[in-house]
Amino acid sequence: MALETELAFFNTNRGELVERHAGKFALIKGSELIDVFDSAETAFNAGVAHFGREPFLTKQILREDPVAQAPAIFTGLVGTGA
Amino acid sequence: MPTHDIFWHAIPTAQERERAAEAMQMFGPRINVAISMPDVLAATLTASGVALPTPHVGFGLIDTGASTTSIDDDVAVALGLPVVDTISIATPTTVSQHPIYPARLTFPGTQLPPILFQRFAGTRLANQGIIALLGRDFLAGKFLHYDGVWQRVSLSW
User: Fold this and answer.
1) Which pTM value belongs to this model?
2) Could you read off the pLDDT of B54-77 as tens digits, one per residue?
3) B43 Cβ neighbours under 8 A, 6+ residues apart
4) What is the DSSP string of B125-157?
5) Judging by DSSP bridges, how do beta strands A57-60 and A25-29 pair with one another?
6) Chain B residue set in contact with A, beta carbons under 8 Å
7) CB pairs under 8 A between A and B
8) For B13-67, what is each residue's pLDDT tens digit?
9) Cβ contact (<8 Å) for B66 and A68?
10) Which of A82, B6, B15, B74 lies deepest, with the highest CB count within 10 Å?
């Protein structure tokens, strides 16, 4: 899975991140929090500036991850890719 | 207020109206979409002397049932868009994990304002002849008018 290390780090530290930075976007590389940002775009721009085309995680700091709804996938209009 | 009429010309003839209604019935409310890299990534590539991939042009289908806009996985990979996160997408029976790609969306042939940067879920769409599924986040701030009598859909913003 892509970004496995980064996602594991985020989930391990989610509670503390939510307490301190709820709603902001974390930039994570490996098992390191690089910084937090006000928007997804600024987090991404900083990630590109730091790491170029290497993989990095930008994730909104929320107590629970939102689940998107797409009923068309169920009806067969759209493949799930799963 | 700018308006984009899907499949309709400004003053269609009767024959054009009929063709537009047939197209709407067959394809649904779809518009031209071009997917490309976010500007900051494109600038990084250019500075490295790497040729930029050509924007991928295709159709985006408006889907009021989708909370989030998604783009085709194969297109994202072909454009070299990085995976920056993951998202769960729920259907009535399943929840599946999908990558999130940052991308730039423009709408050729329309006056719709470009989306210069947004995170999009990656799903498999190409088999349906579309490269983007435009959800309620796309419709935010717009009026969507569906006229089922004339099979006419318009977007205003």
Assistant:
1) 0.92
2) 999 999 999 999 999 999 999 999
3) none
4) -GGGT-SEEE-HHHHTTSEEEEETTTTEEEEE-
5) antiparallel
6) 38, 40-41, 44, 48, 63, 65-68, 70, 73, 80, 82-99, 102, 117-119, 121-125, 127-128, 133, 135
7) 121
8) 888 888 888 888 888 899 999 999 999 999 999 999 999 999 999 999 999 999 9
9) yes
10) B6
Contact B74, B123 (CB under 8 A): no
Q: Is B83 close to A68, i.e. CB distance below 8 A?
A: no
Chain B residues near residue A34 by CB distance under 8 angstroms: none
- Cα–Cα distance, B47 to A1 (Å, whole number): 30
Q: Which domain holds residue B9?
A: 3-156
Tokens read off for B29:
């409310």
* Facing residue for B85 by CB, picked from A57, A67, A78: A57
Cβ–Cβ under 8 Å, residues A60 and A40: yes
Pull the structure tokens for residue B82: 């990085």
Q: H helices within chain B, ranges in order? A: 14-27, 39-47, 73-79, 136-139
Total tally of structural domains belonging to chain B? 1
